[in-house]
Amino acid sequence: MSDIISVAGVIATDPRHVVTSEGLRITSFRLASQQRRYDRAQARWIDAETNWFSVTAFRQLAENSQASLAKGDRVLVRGRLRIRDWTKGERTGITVEIEAEGLGHDLAWGRSEFRRSVRAAAEAPAEAGPDEAAVGADPDPEAAELEPPVAVPF
Question: 3-37+45-110 falls under which CATH superfamily?
Answer without folding.
Answer: Nucleic acid-binding proteins (2.40.50.140)
